[in-house]
Structures are given as structure tokens and as C-alpha cells.
Amino acid sequence: MLCQHDQSLALLQLKISLSMITVSSTSISLYPKTDSWKEGTDCCRWDGVVCDNKTGNVIGLDLSYNDFNNSQSQIPSQLDLSFNNFSDQASSSIENLHELSSLYLSNNNFNGEVPSLLGNLKKLTMLDLSHNNFSGQLSSSFENLQELSSLYLSTNNFNGQVPSLLGNLKKLTVLDLSHNNFNGQIPFSFENLQELSSLYLSTNNFSGQVPSLLGNLNKLTVLDLSSNNFNGQIPSSFENLQRLSSLYLSTNNFSGQISSSLENLTELSILDLSHNNFNALNPSSFENLKKVTSLYLSYNNFSGQIPSSLGSLTQLHMLDLSYNNFTGQIPSFLGNLTNLTALYLNYNNFIGQIPLSLGSLWQLSLFDISFNNLNGQIPSSLENLTQLYYLRMGNNNLSGQIPSSFFEDNQLNYIDLRNNKFQGPIPNSIFKSVNLTALLFSSNKLIGEVPSSICKLKALQIIDLSNNSLNGSIPQCLGNFTTSLSVLHLGMNNFHGTIPEAFSVGSSLRYLNFNGNQLQGTIPSSICNCKGLQFLDLGNNVLNDTFPDFLGTLPGLQVLVLQSNKLHGLVNDSSANYSFSMLRIFDLSKNMFTGPLPSEYFNDFKAMMNFDVKMKYMGEPNNAYDYSVTLTLKGLVIELVKIQTLLTTIDLSSNKFSGMIPQSLGELKSLKLLNLSHNKLTGNIQTSLGELSNLESLDLSWNLLVGRIPMELADLTFLQVFRVSYNRLQGSIPGGKQFNTFDGSSYEGNLGLCGFPLENCDNGERQQPTASPQEDDSESMFGFGWKQVLIGYGCGVIFGIAMGYIVFKTRKPAWFVKMVEGYQKPRRFKK
Question: What burial class does residue 497 get, using C-beta atoms within 10 Å of its C-beta: 0-12 exposed, 13-18 middle, 19+ buried?
């Protein structure tokens, strides 16, 4: 039988709509089946079209990549256009396909309001409009779809309140409104949806208390109200949801004690109450939930001990109690939960030792007890956890040696033992964990050498052994044993020798920190092979080299710390290719650099000129590792365990830089800290420094600067630290704003300065003899230069001649003889 003429026209219109869609990523036609769709031919014979053999109505369309099974024994009645790139043109072509029972339009680019014409498809039982850009409110025509059993509207931009008309679709079994912008409360009309088995309302802006009417939908098996603004307590009517297997209430503002109504939900498999404000657990809350496999209670305010009823949930695979205030010891009954694959107890206040019984959790793959107050040693029973993949025990008070048997036979991928009191050497057995991607042993009391066998762990991405007492030389192979390594932190140890010479091409290193060792020699140029390097800290060693200008070829370098070494020579831009354009932290302090300040580099510090920087922290993707650095900030040595991208600093203090302060420093608008102290800088303080509107600390002390303090500096409203002491400045100190907060120590050693907080200026102000920039700066310990000495010498000569003349004329005047003889008598000292 020939297809219906009106439906043939509708399909041809649909073909035209599809042909308007261009795909630049492929030269292959996305819709080859439509090539057979030609006017004047039977549409029931077109590729991808299925008709009812009796009526000629189009009941199915398949425009996917796969061949359509056009079997006469199977007559589908659906149109699946999901995962295409359609816009609004295609939707109007569907209106005449009034026999459709299933319509899938997900993952396209539809926008605006849902066309009301969809209300004409009255035989629809399935409608999927998810993952589009539909917006506004739902059309009233939806009320015509009385046969609908499944309605998916998730991941769009719908807003406003949910229309009550949805409550009239009484055959609905699945309703998904998640990931939209719906607000207000759940409509009372939902009480009519007595056939609902799955209701998804997550990730919207619903508010208020959850209506008790949901407890009357007793066929529900899945209820997801997560990521909204619901508050109050869980309705007591939820005890009626006897078929419920999954309940998601996370990321709301629920508070108080967990409702006893949950005790009756004996079919529950997944219960997620995380990210709320619950503060109390009923001791019997979980006694009857024997089928629960996943329990999420993290990020609440629970306190006290873990209720013993948890020990009866023997089907548990996932237990997350992290980020609460649980106290006491970790209960040994957790060892009864032998089906556990993931156990999170981190960020609580547990004390005591790790219970031996946890060694019975032989299926455990994820285990996190970090950030508690646990002590003692790692129990030997944990060597039974051969499926362990992810282990975090950091930030406790655990001690003893790291047991070598722990690594003999497991699948470890990530191990974090940071910030404990472990001692002894790193066990060699750990180097058999060939799947290891992260090795975090920092801030312990580990000793011994790091063997070259560490380079057998080709999968390593993060190595942090910092702040221990490790010694010996750094294995040379660490520079090139793998291209996957992104973090290498060996700082604050006792390593000696040289930096590994060969960093391989294609290296993934982003963070390299050898600060605080005894490394000697030069900085290897092969570091430039690490094109993704963002952080380099070689400070506090005994490196003897010139400035490594080749590091300017690293396009993403943001932090460069070379402080406290024996680096020397000029710091200048020897090539136009070396720019340091992304640099935010530049610390060359406490070296022996000479010559003028590197104005060429200042001109290229583009990142320090940029105001529009979003506040985030430097680190590895997915928060796998936070970058840290130790800097001198505002006169204090501070370890920043996280580095804000907003932090921009230049510290060139305690070198031998000379010449004038470059005016180009005033272009670094986002600079927060500038320290040029303890150098030999001359000339005036540049007025352009007054343009550094974000500056919080400015230290120019202990130089040879002359002239006045520029009035423009008074405009630095964020300035908290200001030091110009021990220069040759004169004139009045700027008044007002931040300058009213600085005490006299900021200005001491400048005899020509006056005004608050020093003595008031007289009419002519104070004048101080100024030295030319070429003048020798050598002074005695009392602060006298050669001019002062010469003046004193001249006065002494004149005084001596006068006294000689008096003696000659008066023949030893008595007063003069007594004075001289008095000085010649030996003095007695008290014993």
C-alpha cells in the first residue's frame, strides 16, 4: 500500500531541513538514507522509513548510522533523531506524523520554547527532548499527551515553576526534569501521578520544604531531589515509599536529625544524604536497611561515634562518612562489611589506632582515612587488602616504618602518607607497584637515599618526597624515565650532588621543586625540554651559575624561584625569544647578581600587567595535587600550601643590582609585592610605581636612593608594607591614606626626611647633602662617608694649629696641661 500523501510531504520537508545542516568535521554525508527520498515515489519504500502495512501510515524512522531492520514481523512506531545537530527547522516537519508513539529528539540544538504542535502527536507514549537548549515554560499543549508514560526534559534551560498540567499526565511512569532552571515548589498536582516509578528533579532551583504528597507516590523506585534548595526535614510520609530503591537528597539544606521514616524503606539500595546540614543520627537509623549497597553521609555535621547499626549493613559496597565531626575510635565492626569496595572516613576527628579488623575488607579498592588524629603504626593485617587501588592516610600522627609487606601484592595506583611521623627508609617493595601514578610521602621523618629503581615506575605522574631527611644524590634517571611525570617535589631534604642533567623531550613536567637541599653545579638547559613547565623552584641550594635566561623559552612558566644560591652576573634578555610572558612569581633574592635591574624582562611580564585574572589555585587537573611554594611575603617567610593565580610578586632583594629603578615597573598593574631592598640602586624613586594600584608591599630599603618620596605613592590604597629605610631620601613624607599607618621604622636612616611619623618639617624642610649616582658608597659602621671624614679631618687640623699657637705663646697654660694629663692617666676597670 502506498504511503499517505500528507506524510510523504512531511518527510520531504524533513529532508530539506536535514540538508540545511552542514557538518565541517567530515566529508561523508550524515544522512545517506534520504538520497532515496524523491517526490512521486512511494515513501514506504524509502530507506529508513517504516509504514504500517494496513494503513500506509509512517510509524517509524531510522536516520542513524546503522542499517534499519525493516522486518515485516516487527513494526516499530518511533522516530529517533537523537544525537544530531538539528535546529528548529526540523520540528515542524514532524507534526503530520500523527501515528508516532515514540519521539526522541535528544542531544540536538533545538532552542526557544517547545513547539506547541507536539501536542498533536496524541499517541505518543515516549517523548525525549533532553540535552537541548529549550527555554521558557512548557506549552499547555502538553496536556493533550494523555498516553505519555515517559517524559524526558532534562538538561535544557526551562525556567519558572513547573506547570501543574504535568500532574494531569496520569500514565506517566518516568518524569525527568533534572538539570534545568525550574524554581518554586513541586506542584500539588503531582499527587495525581500514581503510576510514577522514577522522578528526577535534581539540579534545579526548587526551594522550601519537600511536600509530603511525594510520600503518596507509593510506586516510586527512584526519587532524585539532589542539588536544589530544599530545606527542613525529610517528610515523615516517605515511610510509605516501600518500593523505593534509590533516594538522592544530596546538596540541599536539609537539617536536624535524619528522619525515622527512612527506617522502613527496606528496599533501599542507594541512599545519598551528602552535602546537607544534618547533625544527628538515630542509633537505629540503618538497622532495617539490609539491602543498602551505597550510603553517602559526607559533608554534614554529624558528631559523636559511628552508630553500631551500620555494622549490620553487610551488603554495603560504598560507605562515605567523610567531612563530618565523628569522634572516638574507628569501630572494629566496620571489619564485618566484607563487601566494601570503598570506605571514606577522611576529614573527621577519629583518634586511636587503625583497627586490625579492617584487614578483613579484602575487596576494598578505595580507602581514605586522611585528616584525622589517628596514631600508632599501620597494622600488618592491611597487607591482606590486595585489591587496594587508592590509599590515603595523610595528615594524621601515624608513626613507625612504612611496612614493606604492604606493597608486595596489590594494585596500588595512588598512595598518600603525607604529614605523619613515619620514619626509616622508603621500602624497596614499593618500587614493585608498577601501576603507581602518585607517590606522596612528604613531611615525615624518612631517611636514606632514593634508589634509582624508582625509575621502574613508568606510570608515575606525581612524586612528592619533600620535607624529609632523605640524602644522597637525586637519581639522574628522574629527568627522563617517563613522559607521564607531571609533579616532582624533592624539596626540603639533604640531597647533594647536581640536578639531573637530562630532561627528555616530550616531558610532561609541570611542577619541579628542589628547594632546600645542598645541590651544586649549574642549572641544566635540558629543563627547556619540559615545555609544559609552570613551576620551577631551585631556591636554597648552592648552585653556582649565571642567570638561566633559556628558561624564557618555556611558554607556560608562571613561578620561578632561584633565591639563596650563588648565582651571579647580569640578568638580561640575551634573545628576543626569551620572554617569561606568563611569569607571576619571580624570586632571585639572596644571590650575587650585578648590573642594572632586568627592564627588558619587566616589559615582557604580560601576566603581571593583566587585571582580568580569575581567582583559582595552581595545581594538577581535577585537584589531584596543589602546588605549594615558600616565599618571603611582607617580611615574613611563609609557606603557601596553595598558590592563588592572583598572587604576583617580584623579589630581587639582597643582590648587587645597581643603577636606577626602571620606569617600566609601573606597567605591572597586577603586581602585589615588590622587594628591591639590599641592593645598590641609585637615583630617584620612580613616580610610575604609583600606578601599581594592586600593590600591597613595597620594600626599597638599604639602597642609595635619593630625592623625595613621590606623592603618587599615596594613591596605593592597598599598600600594607612600605619600607624606604637606609637610603638618602629627603623632603616631606606623603600624608594621608595608607601613609598614616606606617611607623618610623619605614623611614629610619634617611636624615633628610620629615613629617609624620617623624618630626615635623620646618619652613625650609630638611636638606641632606646628596651623593651623585657615581659616588662611592662605602661607609663606616657608624654611617660616615668619606666627605664627613674629610670635613672632620679639616676641622681637627685647624683646631690643632690654634692650640699649638696658644701653647707657644702662653708657655703651658695650666688648664690645657691638666686636660691632656687627665686623658693620659691609666684607667681602672671594675673587676
Answer: middle
Element housing 818 (H / E): helix 814-824
CATH topology classification for 1-109: 3.80.10
Residues 668-686, buried b or exposed e (16+ Cβ, 10 A)?
A: bebbbbbbbbbbebbeebb
Contacts of 359 (CB under 8 A, 6+ apart): 335, 379, 380, 381, 382, 383, 384, 385
In 747-830, where do the E strands start and end?
752-754
| Rounded Cα–Cα distance for residues 509 and 527 (Å) | 9
pLDDT in tens, 93-137: 566 677 788 888 888 778 888 888 888 888 999 999 999 999 988
The residues that bridge with 497 in the sheet, in sequence order, are 519
Could you state, in order of their start, the residue ranges of all structural domains in the chain? Answer: 1-109, 523-754, 786-824
Closest by CA position to 367, among listed 350, 383, 344: 344
**599 secondary structure, DSSP code:** H
pTM here is 0.82
559, 535 in Cβ contact below 8 A?
A: yes
Who's near 706: CB < 8 A, 6+ residues apart? Answer: 682, 683, 684, 727, 728, 729, 730, 770, 771
CA distance linking residue 698 with residue 274, whole number of Å: 46
Tell me which CATH code domain 523-754 carries.
Answer: 3.80.10.10
- Can 1-109 and 523-754 be said to share one CATH topology? yes
Q: Where are the alpha helices (DSSP H) in 573-678?
A: 599-604
The two beta strands, 397-401 and 205-209, are unpaired
Closest among 683, 745, 687 to 713, alpha carbons compared? 687
